[in-house]
Design brief:
InterPro entries: HTH-type_LysR_regulators (IPR050950), LysR_HTH_N (IPR000847), LysR_subst-bd (IPR005119), WH-like_DNA-bd_sf (IPR036388), WH_DNA-bd_sf (IPR036390). Belongs to the LysR transcriptional regulatory family. GO terms for molecular function: DNA binding; DNA-binding transcription factor activity. This is LysR family transcriptional regulator. It is built from nine helices and twelve strands. The protein is an alpha/beta fold. It folds into two domains: 84 residues, Arc Repressor Mutant, subunit A (Orthogonal Bundle); 215 residues, D-Maltodextrin-Binding Protein, domain 2. Strands 3, 4, 5, 6, 7, 8, 9, 10, 11 and 12 form a ten-stranded mixed sheet that branches. Helix 1 crosses helix 3, helix 1 crosses helix 4 and helix 5 crosses helix 9.
Length: 304
């Protein structure tokens, strides 16, 4: 059984037509026909229904079952190839969403330099959903991912490192600026400035809308956090941000939500289950855990 025959079979299941598969791979139609026959001979089952009355082929029950295995085999092969490029290139891809990266990477970078990991690191900055997909596909070794719920999957190790609150963010001159906390339902008449749908914030905002049975007005959405903060500061509207997205340099007021069972911003360390943990990856995971713990301890000490 060879890989090319499996690829032909997978494509045939999609196209349902020998000629289309042949055109896709730039080979003759008999090449595809013989490949399917080889698989059937080796497996001793019919994989496709051969009915000349119909232009398109269909899979037998055995063929549909075999397709599940073929999909898994070819997916793992693609992931293996991706992982091997990481070894040969001596580079370590790390996925960091913009907000999480902006907050933690400056704290992490000095430790990475001391351990000689920094020169090998390739940072990929995207939304958490995209980065999660890249880790599953083997294109990233490690990611620090934001979510509203614990990430559970058979192929990944997931560790929730910390949980952050979402805050209502206003300009110092805004009428709400003196409040210590506020219920989301009391913000129904406010104009909101939000991060775009690629951010976890959008789903958290939707959950609060559903829980409070309100429909606040969203007047603008942006992928650019700096632009959004500038608009909030100018008083155009109010924001909804995870607490780690706000710093003292922003000159903005962050207000706690008073709602019970409000969504939290979970920050998880993710890496593939079946990846061999090289010394550099093991050291990177240790350093990430360390800086998150140090940050949490520092905040606790400041509250005392």
């Amino acid at each position: 059984m060879n890989i090319r025959d499996l690829e032909y079979f997978q494509r045939l299941a999609l196209e349902k037509n020998y000629s289309k598969v042949a055109d896709f791979y730039h080979v003759s139609q008999p090449t595809i026909t013989y490949a399917i026959k080889r698989l059937e001979t080796e497996l001793n089952v019919n994989l496709v229904n051969r009915n000349q009355a119909h232009k398109n082929i269909t899979l037998t029950n055995a063929g549909r079952q075999f397709l599940l295995h073929v999909n898994s085999i070819l997916r793992e092969l693609r992931i293996a190839k991706q992982e091997m490029t990481h070894f040969s290139a001596k580079k370590l891809p790390l996925g960091l969403p913009p907000i999480i990266g902006n907050y933690y990477f400056p704290k992490l970078s000095s430790k990475l330099l001391q351990t000689d990991i920094l020169p090998h690191l390739v940072i990929q900055r995207e939304g958490s959903e995209n980065l999660l997909r890249q880790i599953k596909l083997g294109r990233l070794d490690v990611g620090l991912i934001g979510s509203l719920d614990t990430i559970t999957t058979d192929i990944l190790q997931s560790e929730v490192l910390t949980k952050k609150k979402f805050k209502i963010v206003v300009a110092p001159t805004h009428p709400l600026a003196t409040k210590k906390n506020i219920a989301f339902a009391d913000l129904a008449k406010e104009n909101f400035l939000l991060l775009s749908e690629q951010y976890v914030h959008h789903r958290a905002f939707t959950r609060l809308i559903q829980a409070s049975n309100t429909d606040p007005k969203v007047i603008y959405q942006s992928d650019d956090l700096a632009i959004l903060k500038g608009m909030i500061k100018s008083g155009i509207g109010i924001g909804f941000l995870a607490e780690l997205a706000i710093s003292s340099d922003d000159n903005l007021i962050a207000i706690d939500l008073a709602d019970a069972n409000q969504p939290q911003f979970l920050i998880s360390l993710l890496y593939r289950n079946n990846s061999i943990s090289t010394p550099i990856i093991a050291e990177l995971l240790t350093l990430i855990r360390q800086i998150v713990v140090e940050d949490e301890n520092k905040k606790l000490n400041n509250l005392r």
